Input
Amino acid sequence: MTASVGSLVPFNVAPTVTVGFRAALDVAIVSSLSLGLDLRADLPASGEAVETYIVAASIVPCIRYPKPFFFCGLVSLGDFHETGVDITHARSGDALYAAVGPRVGAELPIGRRFFVLAHADAAFILLRNPVSVGAVMVFQLPVVAPSVGLAGGVAF
Output
């Protein structure tokens, strides 16, 4: 079993570039297969009278071959939150965030128990929630939202 925490830079899931945080637990099924649970929280990002963020959990099955590389699938569910900013009668709302896609990366050992991992994801957004101010749509989740991440971890 491994645990890791790190940063995430998701693209196109907010009106401006944002950063997020990721925590993960992975359990080895056999030497080259693992199953993980990721928790993700993006910092709020503002643009055009709206602020958004995503908080989500993902199931992450991975093939870990050839080492140190891994190839995974992601199934993510969570909350897409929006809030009006700098406008009269601003409202907040929540919508279901759902995405699937691949993750590729490398896990580089540091000694016997510690490691650094880097990954790139491509989330195919299943629910493209539009964000409107009045009758004007100011933001919508894209079809594909890439992200990159860097984390440190420990093996138990």
In short: The chain has no helices and eleven strands.
